[in-house]
Amino acid sequence: MVTHLYDYNDKYMIAQIVNADPDVDKVAYSSFETDNTGLWTVNGPGSYKSSNAITGSAGFTLGANSLTASLTIGKPYILSFWAYAGSQVVVSGNVV
After folding, report:
1. Residue 52 gets which letter from DSSP?
2. Separation of alpha carbons 46 and 4, rounded Å
3. How high is the pLDDT of residue 96?
4. What is this structure's pTM?
């Protein structure tokens, strides 16, 4: 099974996920260059800054807030992200 993710007003495919059922396996993603948070829940205010752009026109500054997403129990996941020096990352749940 293959899931395709679209962003930029559903104009462009931004990712392809292999072995993911689009009806069961919810994929949380975001480039943070659009207002779409892609199934991530932002807990608290954040801001978009052009000075934080890694590959595009803006980056998302989370500050002391957090992001959460629901996962399907019993499936492996990959968490991939960019962070600046001094950032703190805490992953909650069963990590293998």
Report:
1. G
2. 27
3. 52
4. 0.59
